[in-house]
Design brief:
By secondary structure, the chain is α+β, with helices and mostly antiparallel strands. It has 17 helices and 15 strands. 65% of the residues lie in helices and 10% in strands. A 7-stranded antiparallel β-sheet has the order 8-7-6-5-4-3-9, with no helix packed on it. Helix 5 packs across helix 8 and helix 11 runs parallel beside helix 14.
Amino acid sequence: MSTAAEAAPPRAGKTWFGHPSQLFWLFGTEMWERFGYYGMRALLTLYLTKHFVLGDRASTGLYGGYTALVYLTPLVGGLIADQYLGSKRAVRFGAIMMAIGYFTLAFGGQPAKPYQLIDGQRYDVVVDNFRDTPTSDPREARFLIVDGQKLAMKGNDDGSLSLIAPDGKVARTVPAGKFTEQAERSPWFVAILLIALSLISVGNGFFKPNISTMVGELYAQGDRRRDAGFTIFYMGINTGSILGQFLCAFFADRFGWPLGLGLAGVAMVLSFLMISFHGGRLDAVGNPPAGVRDRSWLIYAGAVIAVPVLYFLYTNLMSAPKPVEGSGFLGYVMSLPLMGKLLFGTFLVSVPGILIWSATAGDKREFEMMLAAMTLIVFNVVFWTLFEQAGSSLALFADRNTDRSVFGWFTMSAPQTQNFNPISIVLLAPLMSALWGALAKRGLEPSIPVKFAIALMGVGGGFLFLVWGASFAGPDYKVGLWWLAGLYVIHSIAELCISPVGLSMITKLSIARIVGMMMGVWFLSISVAQYFAGVVAQIASVETVGGQVTNLKVSLDAYTSTFTTIAWVAIALGGVLLLLSFPLKKWMHGVQ
């Protein structure tokens, strides 16, 4: 079934940098959407730990669930747009939903009031010089109120908590495991938070897959400008990411959470305006399939109904119990919240299921190519699970254990440190492309499995680099900013080894009859990885008081221990994949 856009692709007329002028409007639409998404994402974990005082484990788990749905909902949104709605209306509707979600997220109310439970008794926590912002103020001081007296709190290396009287003497030491951080927070504002995340997740499902589809419609089959056009389009993604992570963090830190998160909503409104008021330039792009009855309002209603469904998944995610020690793999899986069970279960069934179908429906060559694709998909889950610590454990590390001073000129906020990744991508992508081209001319370009292996080892190398830097931490237990920047540079190189070739690899290795399904499995693998990235971040959880650690040495040790484990796991699995690259290359039957 063809669309109107396919019948008359808008190739003639005015151009923008030698490309169809419509590319400018799609570039801007995507740039502002990425501004909002990455700006909000940079703030989310810190918003949960500081403003809502949910604790590290709940916050990183919720963050992982949110980013998992970001990659899962586009599977449904893309299908609906292809069959009924058309890309343009899907993008417009998604922009509205996301804008409402961002503005809703900004209504966090008053910060939660922390307290400590010690031997079952509640003791209120008061905070002096408190600033409800993403970045901790070193002047903030937290005190426990015991019998009307303000006792300072200091975490000890053994996990115990010392309560220090005004005269500097230790009034009491609470053993590890005998105290628990809690917070008094409004159930209404927590509900608003989860509704906002649900709205953004649904809107993202309509927006994310369909804006790229519209870019593809600008070029006829065989138009050599297509790849360059997508390169320009992806520059919009990185531009939006850089601006969003800088400005949303700046406004949140300077003026408070509502303005930082609200700025993401403003960006989304600008995105909606560009896709809606284009002076007729996009009339021939992204239209519904010809001959299909208009079901748009039914689809919009279904999307609104989906919001409570996602709300339920988020609430279930927050209430998930900790896995019981010694329960084994099965016990761990059973302890997963509903979202984790659905993602993990679907992936475990789909991978062997498709391979069994390939063995019966295809010939030996097709089966071997599918086996190679599925093997790489499994390693793709591992890569993104370890790579996607930027918004969770690395964001908390940047806030707590990083000296963010830039040559003494100014201090970056914790969320702004995530900008090292997109900046590195912009600077390194042309160099990596040139490197692969030069190696290809000499017949030395690594195969796809080898690039995947390099990416895994690169993730491990980045974490080892940061752990090395931690050995130079001063008496304040803070690591220099440039060690964290170095991690992001190394991770960006690793990303460039795997991300650009992944989708292309799927289309080349898949049996033609199920390419669409395989693309779905690819995005499902990334969704699973995002969820388990949150689980990995939970391992680095640190006991806090009011969202702030009481012993920076303890937190530094926790992070370096977790990052060291991540590093060696990544390097070991990269080595395994390097060995597997020989049979995988054979199974790929010449696919490059």
